[in-house]
Each structure stands twice: as structure tokens, then as C-alpha cells.
Amino acid sequence: xxxxxxxCFGFGQVAKNFIKKFxxxxxxxxxxxxxxxxxxxxxxxxxxxxxxxxxxxSFDSKLEEKLKKADYILISIAxxxxxxxxxxxxxxxxxxxxxxxxxxxxxxxxxxxxxxxxVNEKSETNPTxxxxxxxxxxxxxxxxxxxxxxxxxxxxxxxxIYSNERNILTRLKKKEVKxxxxxxxxxxxxxxxxxxxxxxxxxxxxxxxxxxxxxxxxPASSEEVTLYGSRLLGIETPxxxxxxxxEDEMLKNFYKDSKKVSNKKVKNVFNYxxxxxxxxxxxxxxxxxxx
Length: 291
Description:
This protein is an alpha/beta fold. The protein has ten helices and 14 strands. The chain is 36% helix and 22% strand. The model has no long low-confidence stretch (mean pLDDT 96).
């Protein structure tokens, strides 16, 4: 089988789990990634790859040749000071690339606050946080480029990500969690395995210029999830605090927004059945296999 050329801007937990899928399916790949650090050769899951330096101050121009030859391009780096540095520095290369799949990973923070109501991909985007504002600006820049150049492009808006390593159970065990009390506060979450599976399914089913939410079936309050995690571990219930007393700016921004994110579109388009349909299955899986 011919090697697939894959270029990942950023190589965090989502990109890594996506790349794992190729290994599991025995698909040979030629992988290139970016990092803020200096260019170096690395290995992941027995895949040797080159990680090119790329940040807001400078980048290794050698990555341009790899990008031109990429079959699949995944963009998972956040805007820097409100600027999408991939568009800023490399849009001319992307225009002329031979990629047949370009995917931008965004966040459901672009919706802002919907007072606990359901949102879908057609809902109003009115972000309340700086992160949400920057994400929406980046989405618009990418979509404009995709439309003008007729690129095979899609956006996935991800809910709060948890994984086998990073989750409420590990934080509860470390006593890093408090129960935040706020009425009618809902948010959605998604296990990184499901993100990787959906990305992989979309490789051969890309509908260009589309936007999809990736979230599980059961939006819930932080309190509900924390209480369930405590029962699952058989530990004492954490201390309760009112959301109005939170001082951490990032956490305060999180509790500004309340919404339930619909996943109907991604399910229907990709005929996808979630591995972890709700936090209940997800946390039970983690407890039984990793804790």
C-alpha cells in the first residue's frame, strides 16, 4: 500500500490519537508535525517522523516542501493573540498543496452562552470568552480561504475533551476537584477516542466546507459529573463552592456559558456510533482499564 503523507499542525492528544488509528488499521504513513520547539526527528507508536519548529516568531521553512506534498492536513493549534499563524504564514502553500482533506479543529466556545438550551451547527455564534472570539475569527479565515480556493476543507467544533489519562477521576484522586454550584449550567464533553474515530471516518467521506460538532449524547453539569466520579471511586464528596466566588479567570469564563451541544449532524453524516456515548460509559471504561 502506498504511504499517505500526513501533516499535523500541532501534535497534542487529539492529533496523537488520530495518528494511532493509522497504526491500528495497518495503513503506512509519512508523518510530519509541528512544535514550538526546534526541529527534530521523533518517534511515536513506532512511527518515525519529523517535528518542525513552528511558532508565532519563526518557523522552519523546510516544512513547506512536506506541506506541499501532504495528502491530509490537520490543524489543531489554537490562534496566538487572536491570529491563526498557519493562515498568516502558509496560506499560499496550502492553496497550492495537493491535499484532499484539510481539517481545522475548533471549539464549541464559539457558541457562547445559550442559557442551557441546545445548540447545533446552525445556532448563533456569540462567544463570551477571548478563546471563543479567537476561535471564531480563525474559523472564518479558514472558511473564506476554503471557499475562495475551493479547498477540501471541514471544521470540527469540539466540546470539553477528556481522555484515559486526563479526566475527572484522576483529578479526584489527586484531590484537585471542588464541586462548583451553579444552577442551569450545562456543558458537553467528548472522549478523545471518539474524536479520533470521527476524524478517521471523515478521511474518505469529506463533505467540503461543512462544520460539525463533536460532543457526546449527554450534556451535564460539572456537579453531576463530579458526584458520579466520586461514587465510582468510592471516595468522599469534594467541597462545594459557589461559581460566583471563582477567582481563576479561565474557570470563571467556563462558567459564563451554559449550553447543550447537539451531535446529530456528525452522527448522521458519518454514520457514527459513539464508543463512549456519555460520561457514564467513558468514566466506567477509564476506571475499569486505567485506574
